[in-house]
Design a protein that fits this description.
Mean pLDDT: 76
Strand content: 5-15%
CATH architecture of the largest domain: Alpha-Beta Complex
Helix content: 40-55%
Shape: elongated
CATH superfamily of the largest domain: Conserved hypothetical protein from pyrococcus furiosus pfu- 392566-001, ParB domain
CATH topology of the largest domain: Conserved hypothetical protein from pyrococcus furiosus pfu- 392566-001, ParB domain
Number of domains: 4
């Protein structure tokens, strides 16, 4: 943690050397102050995909009762004397506005590049950004703020490989898709990476996603969480026209089979559903019932199917053997 704070001081020192604070009200940098939250304006890049208003209201109530423990980070506004721009702590700032409280803020002189770097370092240090929020922030740091790709390594404490992944995924998800999905806290890098790679390889995938997105009812409990909305579009992206329709003619009275609930020990609610037609099966698992399980399954699905086939073959052999023994017993 100390290294990250040192990095912020270095950024501030460089900006002061360049004379950033001349546009504001003098030597305020490097101190904690109580500020009117209406004097703190948006700055840098939005680092979060979505911020729940319910979450902000809960935080506001907490601040009323217990006070603000951690200051936000701001810089003097470059063109409005006596006012400021937010670097990190947007939720705390919003909560203070709702609660009618002054906001405690650490003031640092930061130029535009240092503002974005400071924002990234501060928020990555808190380790509560989801993978897609990190990826989108990395892409915007380079594409919108004009930082060098190597700056991502510093801000994210990562190497070239992870930086490349962040940029590829952050640039690869269209805004409308990301807006619908949200921050997807249960979805890690492997599935986002697979998602982007499939969109690049299959031109129809994005069209299918936008079709189901247009028809989606967000009031549906099945789409109540961000992870569920990701799975909804992920399934649409990988669905093909052939697999999507049942090619065998149906009789007039033939019904589409109902999905079966999947239950596992130690869980009081279903963890997913299973549905079978004459030609295929569909298994849908909820990402929240076992954190990390869907990512593990994504890596091991082939091994899981192989083991299931082995179990099937073993059970089939035993069934055939039992039938043979029963037939032999009847003949003797």
């Amino acid at each position: 943690m100390a290294a990250r704070k040192s990095s912020l001081r270095d950024l501030a020192a460089k900006s002061r050397k360049d004379g950033l604070a001349a546009a504001n009200t003098g030597p305020v940098a490097g101190r904690i102050a109580e500020l009117d939250p209406t004097l703190v304006h948006a700055g840098g890049l939005e680092d979060r995909v979505d911020i729940s208003q319910e979450e902000i209201a809960t935080l506001a109530e907490s601040l009323r009762k217990a006070g603000q423990k951690l200051p936000i980070l701001v810089r003097p506004h470059p063109s409005r004397p006596g006012e400021f721009e937010i670097v990190a702590g947007r939720r705390r700032l919003a909560a203070c506005k709702i609660a009618g409280l002054q906001v405690r803020a650490e003031i640092q002189d930061l130029d535009d590049a240092a503002l974005v770097m400071g924002q990234a370092i501060k928020n990555i240090a808190r380790e509560d950004l989801t993978y897609i929020e990190r990826a989108r922030l990395a892409a915007r740091m380079v594409d919108e703020a004009g930082l060098a790709p190597a700056d991502i390594d510093t801000a994210f404490s990562c190497g070239k490989t992870d930086r490349s992944r962040y940029l590829k995924i952050g640039r690869g998800i269209p805004d409308d898709i990301l807006s619908f999905v949200g921050k997807a806290p249960g979805v890690g890098r492997p599935r986002w990476e697979k998602f982007v790679a499939h969109m690049e390889a299959n031109e129809a995938a994005l069209s299918r996603m936008r079709e189901v997105l247009a028809a989606a009812n967000t009031a549906d409990s099945a789409l109540a969480t961000s992870d569920a909305r990701f799975s909804y579009l992920f399934d649409a992206a990988f669905r093909t026209d052939v697999a999507d329709r049942d090619t065998t003619p149906r009789g007039k009275d033939e019904q589409t089979p109902e999905a079966q609930e999947i239950w596992v020990p130690s869980h009081d609610t279903p963890v997913g559903s299973f549905k079978r037609t004459h030609s295929r099966v569909q298994v849908i698992l909820k990402g929240s019932f076992k954190p990390g399980f869907l990512d593990w399954l994504d890596h091991n699905v082939n091994a899981v199917i192989v083991q299931a086939m082995r179990d099937y073959e073993r059970d089939t052999v035993f069934d055939d053997l039992s039938e043979t023994l029963e037939d032999g017993g009847e003949e003797t």
